[in-house]
């Protein structure tokens, strides 16, 4: 089984590993990353099974493909480049894709026509929805061409919601998920997740000849403003006195605590994997 995508999919991968590893004795499992951390492999030796994570935040080749250093000033994706990462997905029995957050730049998305090494770059700009549609079409085309539907199940996880603005759920201005301890009770709550993106997913998947199992986790997760890692995460650099005095400023309201919400995503995955109909 291989998870392919961004840090949210990495979270779902880690959740899956946590769910499985407690039933395996210490000598019967291992977890390793390659040098550049683009691939992490959990091995359940007695079962000849691996659960893997492949960092590919746009699925297509991009200038953010370094799994460790990927803060770039201007995100750029290469057109028609899905084989760059796709070559690492071949032969997998269960593929779980995601991609969303990296497309949300608030600007037009830049597509490169040539190579990242070209000195003079030819660039085409797309709106967020157009760009995302290009990615979905590329992914579905790749799956159809390279996967055998009798052998490989393909899953796609929808957008993981953020809680970076309390006003979206009627909280005070300036707040975020920090110090939130209860869920949002309004069953119609949606937040600020991009509905056009959901529509693009629905349209493109309904055209797909290869069956894709969709894990529609967006709304059920949007209630969980209490479930983020918030201030309880590893910080990349020491916090400044100003930050420490104002925890809201460094709370992570994108990623999720484990154990937690993402275990539920995997329960859905489990149910759809073993009981497809
Ligand atoms: C383990 O899995 C690999 C890859 O699917 C396969 O080539 C190999 O034959 C398997 N070994 C056993 C003992 O099942
Ligand atoms: C998949 O399985 C079906 C039914 O067993 C069979 O008719 C079809 O040829 C298989 N397709 C491939 C690509 O092997
Ligand atoms: C956290 O929430 C509690 C309960 O709502 C409130 O009493 C407290 O002042 C909040 N703390 C901060 C630092 O915002
Ligand atoms: C996912 O679920 C939401 C409701 O939670 C629904 O509005 C949306 O249409 C669903 N998306 C797809 C592609 O089925």
From TrEMBL:
<protein>
    <recommendedName>
        <fullName>Trichome birefringence-like C-terminal domain-containing protein</fullName>
    </recommendedName>
</protein>
<dbReference type="Pfam" id="PF13839">
    <property type="entry name" value="PC-Esterase"/>
</dbReference>
<dbReference type="InterPro" id="IPR029962">
    <property type="entry name" value="TBL"/>
</dbReference>
<dbReference type="InterPro" id="IPR026057">
    <property type="entry name" value="TBL_C"/>
</dbReference>
<feature type="domain" description="Trichome birefringence-like C-terminal">
    <location>
        <begin position="1"/>
        <end position="271"/>
    </location>
</feature>
<comment type="similarity">
    <text>Belongs to the PC-esterase family. TBL subfamily.</text>
</comment>
């Amino acid at each position: 089984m291989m998870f392919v995508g961004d840090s949210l999919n990495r979270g779902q991968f880690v959740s899956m590993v946590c769910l499985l590893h407690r039933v395996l004795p210490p000598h019967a499992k291992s977890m390793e990353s390659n040098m550049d951390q683009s691939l992490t492999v959990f091995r359940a030796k007695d079962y000849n099974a691996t659960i893997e994570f492949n960092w590919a935040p746009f699925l297509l080749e991009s200038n953010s493909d370094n799994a460790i250093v990927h803060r770039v000033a201007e995100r750029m994706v290469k057109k028609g480049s899905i084989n760059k990462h796709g070559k690492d997905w071949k032969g997998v029995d269960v593929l779980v894709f995601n991609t969303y957050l990296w497309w949300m730049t608030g600007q037009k998305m830049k597509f490169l026509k040539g190579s990242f090494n070209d000195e003079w770059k030819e660039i085409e700009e797309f709106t967020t929805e157009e760009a995302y549609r290009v990615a979905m079409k590329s992914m579905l085309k790749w799956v159809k061409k390279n996967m055998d539907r009798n052998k490989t199940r393909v899953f796609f996880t929808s957008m993981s919601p953020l809680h970076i603005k309390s006003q979206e759920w009627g909280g005070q201005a300036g707040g975020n998920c920090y110090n939130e301890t209860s869920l949002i009770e309004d069953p119609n709550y949606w937040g600020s997740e991009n509905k056009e993106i959901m529509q693009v997913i629905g349209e493109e998947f309904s055209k797909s000849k290869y069956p894709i199992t969709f894990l529609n986790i967006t709304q059920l997760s949007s209630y969980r403003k209490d479930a983020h890692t918030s201030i309880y995460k590893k910080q990349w650099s020491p916090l400044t006195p100003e930050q420490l005095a104002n925890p809201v400023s460094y709370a992570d309201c994108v990623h999720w605590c484990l154990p937690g919400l993402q275990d539920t995503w995997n329960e859905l995955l489990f149910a759809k994997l073993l009981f497809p109909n």
